[in-house]
Queue: 4 jobs
Job 1
Amino acid sequence: MTIAGLPEEELFAQGHTACAGCGQALAVRIVLKAAGKNTIVANATGCLEVFSTPYPSTAWRVPWIHVAFENVAAVATGIAEALKHKKEKHNVLALAGDGGTFDIGMQALSGAAERGHNFCYVCFDNGAYMNTGIQRSGATPKYASTTTSPAGKAVHGKQEFKKNMPFIMAAHGAYVATASTANYMDLFNKVKKGLEFDGPAYIQVDNTCGTGWKTASNMSVEISKKAYETRIYPLFEIEGGVLKNLKKPAKKVPVEECLKLQGRFKHLNADEIKDVQDHVDKEWEKLLKLEESKLKLF
């Protein structure tokens, strides 16, 4: 099935073993359509690596290497430097989930960005360590129930808000963008821009995990759309340390409209929903002011 407005060639083939309705599988298709055939992929351990390469088959139609949870940025920069030495031009993509980005792989990513290597890092953000059992990560939203932050009588899920990785990466001088499978053309364009950027690029993609989020398989794109409309997952760019191109939803939708679609939030009470709403509103106002000010953040 083709995706309107995007190149027809599929560099991420059918026949992988992703769960039905996997948002990450859709996102990877779009990312590779943007990158094109002249691309080398380094892929951290995670769902993507597991479901795309069930021995003896593979879904990858570009050169691909599987590396450990923690070192995909280091391997990608090694590839980039080798290509520079050989005077060859190829797009270098580092692909990882949020666990391998926000937590386990952050040291290697920070070092690679600080050194200014020319590669594009894409984080597929589904808000937990899904492949290893749905454990909480630094990207897990507050109050989400996971196997290591379960919703019990005393504590209702994770008790901390999500780590702000886009701003952390912007502080390293990288081109930064947030994207979503619900706006595939925006994701496509941001990947192309990240690959054209002279230096490190970091793109964080909101994608639903039906298994971990306890959602219906046919609702993946709709839930990502609601995350954008409720401003839970704002879409913007940071370039040269300046926040720009903040996409504004046509109308303000209450966060409950997104949360109620996900089983991982079914335990929330009115006070907790209000806490999430207040946090989202505060962060949105901050983004609006930063864009308007054109202030160089870092």
Job 2
Amino acid sequence: MSHDPPHIDEIADSRPLLRQPRFATLWLTQGMAQTAQNAILFTLLILVLGLTGSSAASSVLVGAFIVPSIFLGVFVGVLLDRWRKGTVLVVANLVRAGGCVLYLFFDDNVLAIYAISLVFSSSGLFFNPAVVSLIPSLVPRDKLVNANSLYNFTFTGSQLAGLVFLAPLILKLGNAQAMFVTAGGLFTIAAGLAVYLDTLRTRQESAPPRAAEFGSILEEFRKGWQALTSDRASALAMAQLTVGSTMVLLFAILIPRYMDEVLNISPDNAAFVFAPTGVGALVGLRFIPWFSRWGKNRVVVIGVVGVAVSLALMATVRGLAEIMETTPGPLNPGRFLGLSLLQSLTMLFAAPMGFAYALVSTPAQTVLHERAPPEMRGRIFGTQVVSANFISLLPLLLVGAIIDLTSVTAVMLGIAGFMLLFAYVSARVGGMNNGDETPPQAPEGVSRSVDTPTRLG
């Protein structure tokens, strides 16, 4: 395979996808719903903290968003393979719109907020796997990297739009009730778009299987798990996605202590200091089609190494700042735009960390899309979500205590070391291939259909 850089026009290959009605509808549905989801989470965190004055109460709220996936995830994947995914998108958005209405009436009751959040997050469990499972049905195989890049670009962009822009703006101009109304409207519009998408029956869903019996769900899930773990490339891709998802949670846990312990400023400024992380991620996702010419696993390994190096540099900003402060000339910039040297260095290293993180998820997700049997996509991506959330619980419970016993910089260096080890294992297990080996066979008892989607639109 040639490693010559593509022409700059090839980098924009994802744009024609948005001119395909079905994919464009799915993209709009995803963007609106995920922006509303992130804005609601931010609003609830602020609301619960204001009602209780307790960070522990906020942790319980986060748990309400995570725990349902562990108990329901096994069923989500199997049911997605049995139900029309367009219908799933409609129902998931309508349930969350209804949750926004309930938040309006019980915004002063913490226990009610927890209960509503359990239902709210449970319905959301079906949304992302349904979106991801639909992508291969709507785009040709040679556009999967572009489609996944656009999906992850939108996923990251919706986090920034919901957490950094929409929720803070609505809360500043109005209040939590205004945010609930706004989010409910976005979910309702997304449901309307999903209704249109559901009328455009894809070839894979033209004849949905009969409804699953409750007793067969665990067996169906077992077959999906077997199909995933029996193929080395697919299992490695799932591990890479899980590590990437866990890193996001770890970073969220580390930021408040890092702001206080290393930068000596209020955690309220985290959105500004770490904004370059989001910008770097968006830039990285934009150029994923270009990087993928080097081989999918190679790109993931480069991304994991980049995250590790950036974390290590951020952990050592105090030492670097001391060296720079005693060095004359350009290495001693002093203050820049009112920022301290520590803040400037952190923002400098945050951008490449976001860029490197973007290189991890899209190639790994594309490998799963290319190798998953079409009739098992819901189970496989449901399995990935369950695994990621289950593994995330351990750092959520332990990392804070470890930081108390050591320091936030020590934990960051430890994570960086783990990431380097994981990059080495990924390179040894997956090689520097392009993820194009022969797809695995489905487990015994499950038919393997050929999935070669045609260009739509």
Job 3
Amino acid sequence: MKKKLWGGRFSKPTDNLVEEFTASISFDRRMYRQDIRGSIAHAKMLAKCGIITKSDSRKIVSGLREIQKEIENGEFEFTVAHEDIHMNIERRLTEKIGQAGGKLHTARSRNDQVALDIRMYLKDEIGEITGLIPELVRSLVRLARENIGVLMPGYTHLQRAQPIRFAHHLLAYVEMFLRDGERLQDCLKRADVMPLGSAALAGTGYPIDREYCAGLLGFRAISKNSMDAVSDRDFAIEFCAAASIMMMHFSRLSEELVLWSSQEFRFVRLADGFCTGSSIMPQKKNPDVPELVRGKTGRVYGHLLSLLTIMKSLPLAYNKDMQEDKEPLFDTVDTLKNVLAVTTALMGNITPDKKNMENALRLGFTTATEMADYLAGRGLPFREAHEVAGKVVSFCEKRGMGLEEVPLEKLREFSPIFNADVFEAIDVRSSADRKTSPGGSALVEIEKRLKELERIHGR
């Protein structure tokens, strides 16, 4: 049994079962870069403040850089006996450089060390994730631009409602994903606070320079309360909440793709490379990618609830329960990055079926509101106009007709106000393009937004 770095107070070794149960090296090893960066900054600060010699600091820094190469070359032996990434690296450092390695932990604790590593890790990952969002936006904008002439029904209650352009529908998701990026950037502000120097919970009596460390590590601020600093996981919970909202947006888009690619809708065709077949039914083309995205949303929601539950009743300051924060966080990061990548690729491999989309407009009486507006514009109170248009819809429904197929003479039986120009009013294309209010579905508004997005994010 290897001696623990903290084992001085103990007379018996850790039970093997407990050692396996409490170790986190199997999952926190992914933070090795952050752990080494933090330790290098800490060693430099200790030397700057005269707490250790410059010679020892140089040995520590050099040894840590060699350890990083060992890890990246697959030459480093991670062991459960050393519990976590922090102890594994520190033990190896002492093996490499001797007594100087034991001085690295001066004026810090694993409590502030792990808090530092997880914040640095999340800062790095938020940067990567937000870097992927513009390409997703571009894929949606390109699809919208290429199909700007395609009309489709807009829906409420999953019932055909009013004519819109396919591009307008896609751009609704662009707005969602742009908000997601803003949320992640806002979350970054809370993660970008350095806890190092808080030690176990009370701070340290050594004359350290926390601002110097923060500058080396690129933090915008240092924590203001040592107890809060080592026990705070709000930033991780906030990230998982932002990720959950973003996954909800992915799930909504995925649900529509599943519906639209079904035989019942036939609004879009998904490329073969993004679908699978059935082991028994030769005709099947299953939309597995959007279905899996939809399913993984529940997984991310679960991680958010897990973190909230872990933290909900912990007394200050650090508790071992908080070791359970990493797996949900890490899996949320991995899931979100994978979903971003696959959805971006999927949206570049979708073909809308213009004919079926526009047929659905005719069958859904989607310009009934325009018919009511037509009558209201000629003096009929809107509620009466609404009733007249509803009666025309009922008439058409019973006969399998579209609104535009009702003869003018018949329309005048419902209201003498109808004239021949009503057919222009209820034309699906003119209906969509009449919505010129800012952010509306008119072609002029869609063009305006597309140009803004292309200017900001590129084509």
Job 4
Amino acid sequence: MARIYEYQGKQLLTAVGVSVPHGGVASIPEEVKRIAEKVGKPVAIKAQIWTTGRFKAGGIKFADTPEEAEAIARNLLGAAIKGLSVEKVLVEERLNIDKEFYIGVIVDNSFKVKAPVLVFSVEGGVNIEEVARRNPERVSSLVVDYLRGVDASDARELTSKLEVAPPLTDPISQAVCGLYEVFKRYDARIAEINPLVSTKDGSIYAADCRITVDDNSVFRHPEFGIRVPRDMEREPTELEDLAWTIEEGDYRGTGYFTQMAPEIKGEGYIGFHGIGGGGAMLGASALITRGLKIANYADTSGDPPASKVYRVVKAVLSQPIDGYILMGSCLANQEQWHHGHGIVKILKEELRDRPGFPVLLLVAGNKEKETHEIIRNGLKDLPIRLELYGRDYIYNTDFIADRVKALVEEYRREKGKKGGKEVK
């Protein structure tokens, strides 16, 4: 799922009639001052980053004057909040809040539901799952008939299950309908207003929002400027931009790539490549517990062609790494010899001039025997440290992780001696 920023989400809410605090988005301190002057009252300055918990992390500040807002923006813009760079801030009027609520639309993929679900809570600003667990009587939900949609009567049914003051019933119901309209119109997977607040004068505002768009629908919404439709808490790196073109241009199977360490500093990083999710994740965890650093997470499941496997591995090897592991720890329902052909071609191209480079491949499933033959024959003259394993090792992640660690340590010692230093 691809996220959009809070200010973008509020633009969508405004377009469907949901009230948001008066303000605007800025990328320079002088612009922050101009917006604060236009608002004409105390403001909140909110870092536009893809993460929750901004207030506690120092990403939301308050100012009484435009000059104070400008000074705050000088410190906030360009700063790192929870490891994320702040490039824009949202400047909004500071609300005189009386009560907070939560409304959301989520997709329930369970076999019993398989539909959007409206959720409403008389507690806002907190983790809704925790509220539902601790105080279920404070949360209500309603399964949506997608073909019929949501109208005011549905919204009132949702809110009537809880104690809501009568003057707030209609404006909250309008906000529910508006949020669902955004959810539907923009192909969202999650749409939340948290908190939806009532002010001392009885007005209702979307004080904050979170909207994520279905990856497969991003092409329908170029206005969001989403470069890589992945659920990420930061802007994509240059390599992730490049790697996305693999998936964007070829939907046969999966060609997933994300960098776990956008900036690789020092040695000891390995390129990680999985086939499937659970087993590969366990393998990654086993590597980390042994002190190895994972540069990236790649996945080529779903029976991709050799050309796609080739391009994903090329992205992995383009990083300054000290080893490459393919953790195909599953009896995959795919023809694995496509992986064999793709891997042989790219390793022969990229590793010919990296003698001793560690490569551990765990490949199991359909055409396993033929795939191993392709790999052994294709790489027999390549001067690398190669170990190849099959289905007997798919549950033995500790053994695989120990072998990777040993190979990487040998390689680093060898490099250190050639470079005139001893690597410990």
